[in-house]
Amino acid sequence: MTAWFVLVESNTTGSGQVFCARARARGLRPIVLTAAPGRYPYLDTDSVDRLVVDTGDAAAVLAACRSLSRVVGITSSSEYFIATAAEVAADLGLPGPDPVAVRSCRDKAWQRATLAGAGIAVPGFRVVTTDAVDGVLAARELGFPVVVKPATGSGSLGVRLCADEDEVARAVGVLLAMTTDERGAPREPVVLVERFARGREFSVETVGDTVAGITGKHLGAQPFFVETGHDFPARVRDTERDELVETTLAALSALGVGWGAAHTELRLTPTGPVLIEVNPRLAGGMIPAVVAAATGLDLVDACVARACGEPPPTAVGGPGAAAIRFVLARGPGVVSAVSGLREAAALPGVAAARVTTAVGARLGEPTGSFQDRVGHVITTAATASTAAARAEAALAVVGVAVSRAARADAVRLPR
Q1: Structural domain harbouring 222
Q2: Which of 95, 151, 190, 325 has the largest CB neighbor count within 10 A?
């Protein structure tokens, strides 16, 4: 009898495809439940089964799973559907996280209040649900600059640093007017205004009670928070590492989301770690690929194993460190040329050099989010500093030319 591994929707940046590959490697048959199969070209290229389902309806997802002969695991690689997968797993008696905790955790307002109540340092914040005036009043209370963000969301979409009242009013007004998320699902008009935490940014990657390590983050130009690169492991002192890990584990416990994968983002301020947010799912931004390149630990396979109740994989070893740098789009315009991939791949320590757009593709206005990435390079080395330097060198030779009117601009990551 076929043993099915169910993925509820998928992210669009790579790991959904890897989830299916890892399930196959374990002798399982992956199937993606999706409302829009065309979102995922890998379904055709990898001959992955799919069922067209209203994935916004947990009952419909449950019915689809019950139509299959034998489901042994269910999860999602998309933050927008991880709670639905958890709910259906519980209904089917399969391994999974607490669905109530996961769904609650995705509400950043609830998350902030819960963490603050548990004594975990978070930025000062206010919840805005009415109008831009309330957002401005909240910002005045907190003190400028402030960060304005949707209470639910992913990939830095809609997140903006605001330096004055006019910027706050515009940012809050835009978010309150948004009635759907990036997937087209209805969203509540709830906005967070929070004090800006100054300091280096990190994320702690966990699966269950296993800490895979700490990622050092690189961010693009303000007022946005686009992650332009990652270093693994992060370059921190032992005491800083301990503080970041202890804060993360305390937060997972307080939120009740310590069963499965989590990606916890923090800033290391002069007074210690401040928790920015806990994401109750595996990291995005190609971080699992970077961790695997550095250590041989396959976080995607670890998630597949946990969802199926199987033993986790063991790290096969690696050079010790890895880094990724992203190529950012600078539309609007049409991609007229891609260059430097072969040259980048030939440089020392380069494990991958890839562009995810193509000549002729039309690029829209930058969004200030993960959607602006159009390529990446991944490098390895014995130390994080060497891996980072190699990534910068490889990135410098990769170009995407974008034609705007009568001129073409080389698109590379800003220093």
Answers
A1: 200-308
A2: 325
Given a cut of 60, whether residue 410 has pLDDT beyond it is no
Please indicate, yes or no, if residue 358 is contained in any of the structural domains: yes
pLDDT of residue 367: 80
Q: DSSP state, 116?
A: H
Q: How far apart are the first and last CA of the chain?
A: 54
CA atoms within 13 A on the CB side of 335: 20
> In this structure, how many other beta carbons lie within 10 angstroms of the beta carbon of residue 366?
16
Q: Is the pTM of this model over 0.90?
A: yes
Write the Ramachandran bin of 227: left for phi over 0, alpha for psi from -120 to 50, otherwise beta.
beta
Domain assignment present for 370: yes
Q: How many CA atoms lie within 13 A of 304 on its CB side?
A: 26
Q: What is the Rg, in whole angstroms, of the alpha carbon atoms belonging to the chain?
A: 21
| CA–CA separation, 44 and 66 (whole Å) | 24
Say if CB 276 and CB 216 are below 8 A apart.
Answer: no
Taking CA atoms, 61 is separated from 53, 58, 290, in Å, by 7, 5, 32
Q: What is the pLDDT of residue 414?
A: 38
* Other Cβ atoms within 10 Å of 255 Cβ, number: 23
Identify whether residues 302 and 339 lie together within a single domain: no
**pLDDT value of position 413:** 42
369 plus 385 within the same structural domain = yes
Catalytic residues: 281
What is the secondary structure of 270-314 as a DSSP string?
Answer: TTEEEEEEEESS---TTHHHHHHHHH---HHHHHHHHHHTPPPP-
Domain assignment present for residue 374? The answer is yes
pLDDT band at 15 (very low <50, low <70, confident <90, very high): confident
